[in-house]
Design a protein that fits this description.
- The protein contains 13 helices and two strands, in the order ααααααββααααααα.
- By secondary structure, it is mainly α.
- The chain has one domain: ABC transporter involved in vitamin B12 uptake, BtuC, CATH 1.10.3470.
- Strands 1-2 form a two-stranded antiparallel sheet.
- Helix 2 packs across helix 3, helix 3 runs antiparallel to helix 10 and helix 11 crosses helix 12.
């Protein structure tokens, strides 16, 4: 009887903590939409009394632009897929108390590795695709290991290192594409990968492909890794309090490097599937892929929960794919960025409030 009560109490507490964790992200989404409606009213010339009409327009157009017909639905799927990968990659780093700004660079290295492996002729399609995914994960993981090692062994901040490595990765990719025989002369891109290396698409002419299932599987696997294994426990312990973790016998340096390797590997897989499923070659980079930075927002909104990143990526992917529809209907596409910015601001505020709250508690305990 006592065991049953204890189990019920545990479930109730888990449910309460889950709802508490979800409350602020939902609140931030509601506030962002509330504010965005005023800009819709301004763009469409509505009066203040037509607020709910403007709200209906905003929701209707976002839905129409994201899921209004099969074509735009597949566009949304192709937007969501890389966001899941980069969101989960950032979530792993966050859980270890790290800020991996280098996800974009790791994504690029995954793309480059996939383009290399994808041009190998004569391979079985299953083996070829597995090799592409493996190559992407290795390239991204190694690129993530460098700032992880420097953080763990030298003490240099991972934010500075990963920012610099983003631009190094972009310059490295451009060197291979523009200055070596790997690139196609006169095209500023690599050769198209072999058909055996291409992931099956849902419909022809669309970038949506089966890598969405891989992204979801990776998110679920990382959730299991972080919450159900010793490895995940140690990574989370280091993120919560590295000094206490070290006192408890956990190797902080090892877990710092490991978290960055896992984070980079996931980003690399995202880049590899982008080549195998969507682009089929790598063009020279004029700027860093936005997916790496959008992944930070995805992870923040999901409270660094890998499974939560699926829903968070769906929201951001839908907003991104609906931008054109909004613009065609007289609403600036910047509304999308406004909504995203307000969500990030509110979620970041929650982290800041928690930080100072915990600091105050520690100060109170020390004074006692």
């Amino acid at each position: 009887m006592n065991k049953a009560k204890s189990k019920d109490s545990k479930l109730v507490n888990t449910a309460k903590s889950a709802l508490k964790a979800l409350a602020f992200p939902f609140f931030s989404i509601i506030v962002s939409i509330f504010v965005a409606v005023f800009f819709v009213m301004w763009a469409k010339g509505y009066s203040i009394l037509q607020y709910f009409s403007a709200l209906g327009d905003l929701f209707g157009l976002i839905y129409k632009g994201g899921f209004g017909n099969p074509r735009v639905t597949f566009v949304t799927v192709s937007e969501v897929t890389p966001l899941i990968f980069t969101g989960v990659a950032n979530a792993v780093a966050f859980k270890c108390g790290l800020f991996n700004i280098g996800v974009a660079g790791q994504f690029i290295l995954g793309m480059l590795a996939a383009a290399f492996v994808g041009t190998i002729p004569g391979l079985n399609p299953v083996i070829h695709i597995l090799l592409i995914i493996l190559a992407g994960s290795v390239a991204g993981g190694l690129w993530g290991a460098i700032p992880g090692y420097l953080k763990a062994k030298v003490g240099t901040h991972e934010v500075i290192n990963t920012i610099m490595m983003n631009y190094i990765s972009m310059a490295l990719a451009n060197f291979f594409i523009l200055r070596t025989s790997f690139g196609v002369a006169g095209k500023s891109s690599t050769a198209t990968i072999q058909e055996s290396a291409q992931l099956p698409r849902f419909v022809s002419g669309s970038g949506a492909n089966i890598s969405i299932f891989l992204a979801i599987a990776v998110a679920i696997f990382i959730f299991w890794l972080l919450w159900k294994t010793t490895v995940g426990y140690e990574i989370r312990a280091v993120g919560i309090n590295p000094h206490a973790a070290e006192y408890g016998g956990i190797n902080v340096a090892k877990n710092t490097i490991l978290a960055m390797v896992i984070s980079g590997a996931i980003a690399g897989i995202g880049g590899a599937t982008q080549i195998a499923g969507v682009l089929h070659n790598v063009k020279d980079f004029m700027a860093l892929p936005s997916y790496g930075f959008d992944g930070i927002a995805v992870a923040l909104l999901a409270k660094s929960n890998p499974v939560g990143c699926i829903a968070s990526a769906l929201l951001f992917g839908t907003l991104n794919s609906s931008a054109r529809t909004l613009q065609l209907n007289g609403i600036p596409k910047d509304i999308v960025y406004l909504i995203q910015a307000i969500i990030i601001t509110f979620v970041a505020t929650d982290y800041i409030v928690k930080y100072f709250s915990e600091k105050r508690k520690k100060g109170a305990i020390t004074n006692e």
